[in-house]
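Protein Record: Sequence and Backbone Structure Tokens
======================================================
Tokens: labelled as protein backbone structure tokens, with as many entries as the chain has residues.
Question of interest: how does this chain fold, as expressed in backbone structure tokens?

___
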Amino acid sequence: MERYWRMTAGEVESALGTSDAGLPSKEAKARLIEYGPNEIEKADRKTPLSIFISQFQNPLVYILIVATAMAALLGDTTEAIIILAILIVNAILGFVQEYRSERALEELRKYVSMTARVMREGQLGEYNVQELVPGDVLLVAIGDIVPADARIIESHGLETNESVLTGESNPVEKDSKALAIAEPAPHELSNTLFMGSVVTAGSGKAVVVGTAKDTYLGKSAKALGEAGGSTDFEKSIRAFGSLLVRIVLIMTAFVFIVNGALGHGLLESLLFALAIAVGITPELLPIIITIGLSHGAMMLVKKHVIVKRLEAIEDLGNVDILCADKTGTLTENAVSLIRYLNADGEDDERILTYSLLCNAAVVQHGKVRGGTIDSAIWTYALSKFDTDKTKGYAKAGEVPFDYSRKRMSVIVEHGNGRTLITKGAPETVFPSCSKVRERGRDVPISKSIKRLVATAEGFGAEGYRVIAVASRSVKPQKEYSARDELGLVFMGFLILMDPPKKDAMPALERFRKLGVEVYVLTGDGPLVTENVCSQVGVQNKAGTVLQGFDISRMGEAELRATVEKHNIYARLSPNDKLAIVNALRANGHIVGFIGDGVNDASSLKAADVGISVNNGTDIAKEAADVVLMHKSLKDVANGISEGRRTFANIIKYIDSTISANFGNMFTLTIASLFMPFIPLLPSQILLNNFLSDVPMLAVSTDSVDKDELKKPKRWDIGRISRFMVFFGLISSVFDLITIVFVFFILGANAPLFRTVWFLESVLSEIFVVFSVGAAKPMYKSIPSMLLIYASIFATMASIGIIYTPLAPFFEFAPLSAEIVGMVLVIVALYVGVVEVAKGVFLWSEARRKPAENGAAKA
């Protein structure tokens, strides 16, 4: 970074060949070619090689590789080649799917754009942060993520959070003074902004001195943000894995010991035991989950919902309470200025002029970007007002907006004097006013305050947003602060309208059908909030609107009780929103939170699913798990439905595979005790698993019954265990029927017996998914065409391989048409019995739920 911290602001600009007007566009393009894009390669980004290697990073795969080597060393080359071939095919299949998913996720990230306000050629504009180069002049304000290392040349109450570099979360004060330090640490550079830090207060101007790998963040190779804790989804996967490990260890040890004792040979017994371990494990589960989640993510893109973290899809589906702001969620977020009234109730151009001067919006080529209120004021003025009336004023200072004061101020020079102009919420501006301008005279406000308050509340009760404007003369000085916002003269009101969204009421009705309760958490006044909620149909279940000061007085226990009774809140601070989200989560709810401002960042991180919008603040998008291309409740509802559909299909795979695998492997274990030969060879077990899993790759596209989407569902390891045993034993019964018929009645030898049982096992697992995967009767549930085609292919491959040149490698015997027909009959009977048993299981689970809930309450 050279030694820019020791230079004055003018020296920094000179050294970097820039000025307050910024770089010429031609020079900026040349520097972008020289320095490259302003982008740091993320540490968690996967390369194709790492994805391929990860396919083998599985304890069961390690065991099979060792088993393959042992078989080869002991002369069983055919068995070794078959096992190794299946492992490689599985790895390639997993690599292709995961690589496609990773590329899809990278494409999704591109939808979430990060921009910076930059001066170039004297014009302020918004540019993608990747286009920044040394010498660019940045403007930063509260809520911005600093996009590059930059030397501050102008500061107005500027503070940043530099925890990404230092781990220290306390805000750091910043200014533009040169520092006489030889070799400073980052935390000592009070005149420097660092890439990845967050502006927590104030505003400023800075010159970019380092981008990408030349920043402190780039040199330290730290990833942006902090690693979050385990999600409910990840914890559930681990719990399911623990269940499998216990079952595998018990069955593997039992099979090895017993088969060894029966004289089947130690190597043969070991390979058989290892095959049992693999046979019972849904080894494609990680791939199926990745495919399911990435498929869900791409489906959501079509519905204008971008998922930054794939696991968030499942969490989104489980949401039962959605916390949302009013503006832009229940309303159009198309705020328009209606009136600009003075204290006498008349439209007054001075009120509009002052509100244009006290304004943080950016106007570029006729387009307005910035906060909702400020943008609405400029949009109105550009079409209906002579904005040249603001050109006689020069900005001399500012006191930026913050969420505790709920107002902002600027100091402007006009003629020979300076004027401080304040704009903000009426309840925060009124206490700072000592006078009011009425009929051209400044008089004490005490006699008029009740009338002014009533005017503001009256507009609020009608659904309008009201902003107060005040001013006073000030003396020239270097710095201004909130302490100067006293003794103001109240000038008048800005009256704005943000109409309710046309799709809000249908979306809210859809949430009710999805079992999701909507909570409104807003910084707006209670009257406006209640009015809008009433118009769109958000039912106030408590009958009252709680405000921030109510929340701040409550203890944890009282707040946890309160949030179950109240669902509409107004005049909330960021800490109030965070407290409500935490209280809801502590009560066991899965909470989604929609927010797009810096004041929402903490709640977005705290919620189970943080949802932001692409035109929100950088810090909000960084904190969110899901980003909406348009702020629409309809899109959120689509996301929740897609999350539930994805989750249902993942559980569908687990249910069908784990029950069939458990049944088959349980029967193999029992059969090996009384049969003179091992019922299935290890290679046949692995081939069974491989072929039966082929249709499962298409399960992410399968349809889901509407009843499955009505309520949020979470992982239930107990239910999965009961499902596995219940339907696994049914599978074992039909396996035993096959054994009795083929071995005891037909008197089949080892190759014939293994071939018949292989075919019955793989076909039963392929077809049972059509039954166990549907909550309704199978004939009422229509599966996806891709699943049907994949099942047909797997069926043909399973039968066909017996008659191909590959059959001898797996030691298959040719089957007559009668035996194949018999297998198909057994499979059909098996699926029919499962269909009947499904109703019994669902009935028993429905009875279990109230009992478990009653026990939990007791």
About this structure: Residues 633-674 form the longest helix (42 residues).
